[in-house]
Write a structure and sequence with these properties.
- By secondary structure, this protein is α/β, with parallel strands linked by helices.
- Helix 15 (about 445-465) runs parallel beside helix 18.
Length: about 550
Amino acid sequence: MAARVHHSIQFQRNTLTTFFFFSNPIHKKNYPSSSKWLSSSSKRSSSLYCTCSTSSKKEDKEPYVITTPLYYVNAPPHMGSAYSTIAADSIARFQRLMGKKVIFITGTDEHGEKIATAAAACGSSPNDHCDAISQSYRSLWKDLDISYDKFIRTTDPKHEAIVEEFYSKVLANGDIYRADYEGLYCVSCEEYKDEKELLENNCCPMHLKPCVSRKEDNYFFALSKYQKRLEEILEQNPDFVQPVYRLNEVQNWMKSGLRDFSISRASVDWGIRVPSDPKQTIYVWFDALLGYISALSQDQEQPSLQTAISSGWPASLHLIGKDILRFHAVYWPAMLMSAGLSVPKTVFGHGFLTKDGMKMGKSLGNTLEPNELVQRFGPDAVRYFFLREVEFGNDGDYSEERFINIVNAHLANTIGNLLNRTLGLLKKNCQSTLVADSSVAAEGNDFKDTVEKLVEKSKLQYESLLLSSACESVLEIGTAGNLYIDGRAPWSLFKQGGASFDSAAKDLVLILEAMRIIAVALSPVTPKLCLSIYRQLGYTEEQFNAATWVFSVSRH
């Protein structure tokens, strides 16, 4: 039967077109879903492998809670917010493969001065504006195959109830007081700035706009009270802030001494009212950070701080852009300690994206629209490029030429080519049917050892959030497979017949098992592509969704 299009990923000129997968999958009866190089009950040598099981996954009791930032709805989603969410999704998918009960939280931050201003500029009410922009995030996450579990909006009444309760606890602890404050305020950051951190003409170093002088009668949080405790957290738990150079940034900020910060606004109407003073609204960051906890209470009719906390707090990983590191690594843990709550386990600050080596901006006309990118190239190509090409934590650059070259070289020419040529040989010589056990075929085979080492390597890299390196290790399995099949030349062995034919059939079994492992190991990054590969190997979508990543160490 002629080949047919199954997935979109092969380059021609300046566009991506399609992968071609054969329409005849391997015969399911003769390539069983339970086949693997070493089963957990095997008496052979030690092994590390991916395995597929149709039984329900065993999950750790303690959930793995991962969060993206709650994205500010002053404008539709951009590539930076898409990048954060793609990365978080790949980590969440990997943790699910490891058998963890994952709670993946994302959402939108919908209060503050900028929101009211943006809504007025569009001629709409703040509520209508927030509804529209929040929905645009949900739509993009669907197009990008984002598998979130909770989507919290800070205008949700359940969230507001949690914020009010949290505020009251901090107030009762004596950490909120009223005072006048005068200083330079960045509207874009929604934050007062120290003069020493500003550029010429009092410009914000992040937004490059002049800060404005403001004087307000506000409520303040006693951040300075927590200086020593925060220093102890950073010293005793160096993994609290990652990567290490972000930890260094936080420690440098703290050396100059922490200052109390304003947690209310008298001049902002669009926000949650201060419980003890309805003339003021709660500062947008004091409000939004609580979304990570209030999201855990979404299924509760009568949300409370305690029931939310008992549903999964503390978070395992806050994944954020480096521009909001101070809020998450300094303000947030101090707020939590004031309320008597546990701090998150890790805050990871990733870098910024540029385009063709330049900072992106509407004024420069070089913005990168995630919706357009997904529509042109598909979600897997977008996900793979940014996770493979950007070293996670550092800044990264996008160029269309490199995007196309990388995706085609890796996904089409390495992985796609290996699958296509193997299935082609299988169809031509074996009528798409193999009666062989991959564990027997792999005995004493160096290729098996190579794959097992790469699987272990990629697992450790996923766990260490080295996402680019994990992609590279999985790709190396495909490269090793192509080299193996070139060296063995099964097309010649099939022609010789007899024992040579059987040897060639075993070679195909090995490669097809390697393809199954690639489909599991790369699924956190390219879920649709990997599902398509799994189906080509004769499995169902249910079997793919039940796949787990398993360590198995057996002894003689």
